[in-house]
Amino acid sequence: xxxxxxxxxxxxxxxxxxxxxxxxxxxxxxxxxxxxxxxxxxxxxxxxxxxxxxxxxxxxxxxxxxxxxxxxxxxxxxxxxxxxxxxxxxxxxxxxxxxxxxxxxxxxxxxxxxxxxxxxxxxxxxxxxxxxxxxxxxxxxxxxxxxxxxxxxxxxxxxxxxxxxxxxxxxxxxxxxxxxxxxxxxxxxxxxxxxxxxxxxxxxxxxxxxxxxxxxxxxxxxxxxxxxxxxxxxxxxxxxxxxxxxxxxxxxxxxxxxxxxxxxxxxxxxxxxxxxxxxxxxxxxxxxxxxxxxxxxxxxxxxxxxxxxxxxxxxxxxxxxxxxxxxxxxxxxxxxxxxx
Length: 340
Known about the structure:
It contains 11 helices and 15 strands. The protein is α/β, with parallel strands linked by helices.
């Protein structure tokens, strides 16, 4: 293979929902961008939005991937503060316009023209990728690339939502779902000092949830999960990491007074709610996106400090389609990571 080409996994077209390994041109970083030699890229459920052309404005062919970890390989013009060989990651926040009303208030993750890797530009299912310098997060030396990659989305989403939830150490915090997001959320909640309750289907997950730091376990198949939460005193917060609205609704009555359902797992179905019950107990429902590159750095530092790690399975680029299908089926334990 020529030094001017690289291997990348692409979605060929808007109507061709598959992943194809190709040799493509090695890109050169434009102004204020860097080129990253990708060492690891997580396979996230949100990548399905690119694969199935379910996100507006995607141009094809497109390389998915927004859980990127690697080293800077080349610098574009006017790129200060970074150097070749530096270890960096890029997540859902892959750049912002800096001019919209949200950016002008410093709220870059809600930028009206948020640049998401794998959507706005080619992502990390490749040997190399480009990224704006403003989107880079420094990776601590204590983290391997395969450990850092899933923290760029799954990690930051759960860590950042919990630390901004208003819950305080000692509060009862329940994690709904013990999958790709949930197994990290249980760890973070426990390390933050919350009384951590894991909610999952069946008793077979209880020992695992407790090994992650859960002090209590609720089997959602064994009676009413809301009643079980109320027996524990009611939840100050339920962090929903699942993608099924029908499974979120039953836990609402398990909230304590002023309790909140915080949603980080996107569901395409509407969530039915009993507004009368919500009013009486001052319940609220909120959603949370991931965070900026600075939040990614906080996530990684906290993970190093407390020993939080994603449980991962790795596959080479050549098996990207297999990794994607394994993630979509729910068989992954618990995050798939590609290693170019």
